[in-house]
Please model this.
Amino acid sequence: MTAPSVEQLVEKMNELTDKPLLDAAGIRRQIEARDLQIANPYAKDAQVQGIRNARRYIGDRLGRVATPHRILDPAAGPLIGVKLHILTRKTLGGIQTDLDSRALGTDGKPVEGLYAAGEVAGFGGGGVHGYNALEGTFLGGCLFSGRAAGRAAAKQTA
Ligand SMILES: Cc1cc2nc3c(=O)[nH]c(=O)nc-3n(C[C@H](O)[C@H](O)[C@H](O)COP(=O)(O)OP(=O)(O)OC[C@H]3O[C@@H](n4cnc5c(N)ncnc54)[C@H](O)[C@@H]3O)c2cc1C
Model:
C-alpha cells in the first residue's frame, strides 16, 4: 500500500491487523536516521556504505534504476508499505549420509534402501564446498550428491 506520509502509511498498515502493531513515531525516527546517513558523504551506516561500494561497479550504477535517495524525499514519493512473508530458503542441514548418499539412521548405520541427496542431505550450503553457505555453490553439491545416490542405488539393484 502507498501513502504520502509515514503516519498515513502506518495508519493504513495498522488497519490490516487486529491490534496496531506499528508505531509511526518509532518508524519515522529510524527512517530519518537512515536519511541523514544518505545525505552524509562520509556515512557511518554499513548498509549505505555497502550500497555506495557496490555502485562503484559501472554495471550496477547504470543498471539499477533507483538511485540512492532519502526515503522521505517528497520527489521520491509516495511511500510504499510491503507485506513480507517468511519462507525457508536454505536448510543448511538435514539427513546424514555416507559417501554413497545412503541415509544414516540414529545408530549411524545406513537405512536399507533409503538415499538422501541435495538440500535435505545438507548440501544447501557447506558439505563439499566447505563449512559456509556461499552463494552459488548449492546446485553443484545437490547434483553431485544426487549422482552419488543414483549410482549407489543402481549398483544395489544390479
Ligand atoms: C531463491 C533461491 C535462489 C537460489 N540461487 C542459487 C544459485 O544461484 N546457485 C546455487 O547453486 N543455488 C541456488 N539456490 C539453492 C538451490 O536452488 C537449491 O539448493 C537446490 O535447488 C536444492 O535442490 P534439491 O533438489 O535438493 O531440493 P528442491 O529443489 O527443494 O527439491 C525438493 C523437491 O521435493 C518436493 N517435495 C517436498 N516434499 C515432498 C513430499 N512429501 N513428497 C514429494 N515431493 C516433495 C518439492 O516439491 C521439491 O520439488 C537458490 C535457492 C533459492 C530458494
Notes: Residues 102-157 form one domain. The chain has two domains: 2-80, 102-157. The chain has a mean pLDDT of 90. The two ends are 60 Å apart (CA to CA).
